[in-house]
Each structure stands twice: as C-alpha cells, then as structure tokens.
Amino acid sequence: MLLRTIVLLLLLLGASGLAQRLAVIGDWGADSPHRPKVAQAMREAHEKRPFDGLLTLGDNFYPRGEPIQAFLDDLPKVRVYPAFGNHDVPALGAQLRLFQVERPYYSFRLGALEVFVVYSEVFDAAQRSWLEAALRASEAPWKVLTLHRPLYSSGLHGGSRSLRGTLEPLLLKYGVRLVLAGHDHDYERLEAKGITHVVAGGGGAYLRGFLKAVPQSLVRAVEAHFGVLEASEERLTFTAVAPENKVLDTFTLKR
C-alpha cells in the first residue's frame, strides 16, 4: 500500500520533480567585469536550488588556457564537465588533469540526460567514430551535444560549415534534440532541421554584437549570462539567466 502511494505521488508531481539540473557557461575564463557578476549569479542560483553539475562550453581560461585558481574558486562547488575551445589548446594537458578527464571528448549520464562533449578544435575520424558509437549505444531519453564552435550562429565567428556537415547527419540519425556551443560572445537560440541550437558564450569574456541574423535564428541578446539545463523523463528545459536574475530566454522541449 505504501509503495503504491509513493508511485501515485510521483505521478502526480510529474517527472519535473526528478529533474537533473546543470549550470552552463561558455567563454567564461576572462578577467573582465562580466565574469564575477555571472559567477555570483550562478552561486546564488545554486544556493536556492543546487545544481548537479556545471557544464562549460570552452574557452575556460584566457588567453592561453592556463588554469586560474581564483576563477575556479568563484564557481559553485559542484562537479565541472568541461568542453574545450581554441583558447584552451595551448594548455590542454593541464586542463585535462585539472578537470580529471582523460581526453577532450567524452560523455556522461545524469538521470534522463546524456551529454556528449565534442572537441571541436580537432574533430577527426577517430572522434567521429567514438561519437557515433556512443550515440548509438545511448538509451537516455535526452541526448545533448556540447562543443565550443557552434554549427549555426549569427555572431562574429558564425557557424562552422565543416562541423555542421560532419555532425548534423549524426544528430539527426540518433535523435539529438539540443546542441550547446560557445565561441561567439553573445546569446542566441536557433532551430535547424528540428534541432535546437544554443550559443551561450556570454559567461565572462567581453561581449560582441551580431552580424546579420541567419535564417535559423530565433532569439538574440548581447548580455553576460549563464544557462540552466533541466532534464526530466518527459521535458528538457533551458533558461538563459543574466546577472540580477534577469531571464533572457527560456524554452522547453518535450518528448
């Protein structure tokens, strides 16, 4: 009787009560006025409702990737799952040791969510084979790809045509619904071929404006921010938050 009551309560509460919650920051490791404000906003959000981890989108430390302890100390005290960008390449080995990952591409599972971290600086045949095998084997309700260089972007750097050509067929084949990237120092949400793309490169580096909006662009903002990614069995929600708890954008994907 007690077990039936517990199951009924869980059904009434919905899967959102069991959601995994990740903070997301891109292009954050810069000595700018934005970085400490974003870090403080993340800590405050973590105190109100704890994160299960922190996902970075690369360019973890400027200008040449050497870890800066003071920047790390500003982050919420949770496990960090890093992606690596162009500014991280010169000190990639030091960052791999710091974050305790064996190589710059890997995957991890948290509840209903599996995240596939891609190393966009050197996306070779070996990494592609690994990614396809990992996507094929995944049984997670939600598959999310993260990398530094975006596939689509209206920002200064723009989307990577080569990565798009290589990765997009895999995303479509294996049901990836969300791609998170940085590199352009802004916030943008785009949609292409049924996949939502987010550029969240406003974690601390100096901001840049947009060029001409690409056709896939839905939402754009030039503000410092971090993201909150929440995954339950039935829903995947992303919210972009600027300092002082200002919501720039939020959206929910449903199975």
Automatic annotation (TrEMBL):
Annotated keywords: Hydrolase, Signal
UniProt cross-references to InterPro entries, sorted A to Z = Calcineurin-like_PHP, Metallo-depent_PP-like, Metallophosphoesterase_PAP
Molecular function per GO: alkaline phosphatase activity
* Keyword presence, Ribonucleoprotein: no
The cross-references to Gene3D superfamilies, in alphabetical order and at most eight, read: 3.60.21.10
- According to its UniProt record, the EC number is 3.1.3.1
- Record bears the keyword Signal: yes
Q: Name one Pfam family in it.
A: Metallophos
What domain of life does the native source organism fall in?
A: Bacteria
The Calcineurin-like phosphoesterase domain, residue ranges? 21-187
Q: What is this protein called?
A: Alkaline phosphatase
Classification of source organism? Bacteria, Thermotogati, Deinococcota, Deinococci, Thermales
- What gene does the UniProt entry assign to this protein? phoA
